[in-house]
Design goal:
This protein is α/β, with parallel strands linked by helices and 379 residues long. It has 15 helices and 16 strands. Helix 1 links the parallel strand 1 and strand 2. The longest helix is centred in the C-terminal third of the chain and has 26 residues.
Length: 379
Amino acid sequence: MKIMIVTETFLPSTDGVVTRLTACIRWLHKDGHEVQVIAPDLGVKEFDGAIVKGVPAYTFPFYRSRKFALPNRIIKKYMADFNPHVVHVVNPAVVGYSGVTYAKKLGIPLVASYHTNIPQYMAYYKFGKFDWLVWWFIKKLHNQADLNLCTSHTVLEELTEKGFERMQVWRRGVDTVQFHPRHSSAGMRTRLSGGHKDKILLLYVGRLAAEKEIEKIRDVLTASDQFCLAIVGDGPHRKELEKHFMKTDTVFTGFIYGDELASAFASADVFVFPSTTETLGLVIMEAMASGLPVVAAESGPTKEQVTDRRNGLLYDSQDPESFKNTILQLENASFRQQLAQQATVDVAELGWAAAAEQIRDLYSQVAEDKAVEPLQAAE
């Protein structure tokens, strides 16, 4: 098949969406398919043999750490020139609007996938009263697709209740070779702990944005001198966070990638994930594969990955003291190690092959079903 992916985010950005896409593109290439990507133009022209067609990208005033591509007619030309069997629009919103519009105009089978709870983010940027409008717009885009995907059963139920149609769960996966306890490094631990390598090292990895609620972690550092914190990533909220964590044992690393990131995961003791707005949280599985117990908010998507007191701990996001008190339980080294060992076991079989094979089969199904429609109409 010839597969065109239109995405709001791609390399060199790093997040769960990009990780999923790059893993699946590699697998699809090995399976003999041709992939082309349309994404905001951030200088990347190729990935694993897939041509990346850039669309001019701009910075929004309220989110200056990331560039977005606006709707653009060039996308119609890219599609027509490539003539794919199927178009997959990832998180349709801005440039994805053009992806949906032109796939429909050109009569190309269309898959869309939902990864980010944009309407819920609105309140963190003082646009909360417009969340209904964002829901309306996103639902309108998704319901033009022949198939819609999301990354957890909980989100599928929520979207179905809101009127999203033709929904299916896209299986989760994690690179269990790249993320593994064997990548632990004394040097990395010293770096992340700011030299306090004998303390319990808490790790956060992800975008530094208001909706991630990273501020909560400070309460742990002030309540106990047994902990230190490493924050890996960058984003629009970094300056505020650096002020918030001033005079605590906290290290900000900025973005790190590849083997260095794998070493960061494996060299910590606990992965902390205070966010309550996630649709899956791929970093949870990366942490578990690296041998870390996870502390996360109790929610539908997290409960599909973390079992309380088995491979991690779940806190009550409605209780202001719950996050701190939950993490303080991990001062117990034997309990911490018990959770860590089980976390690694629980994700050991979750490679990316199953998720990539599933998306290949779904692309094929949508393309075949679309091809049959004109014949049925003629009959």
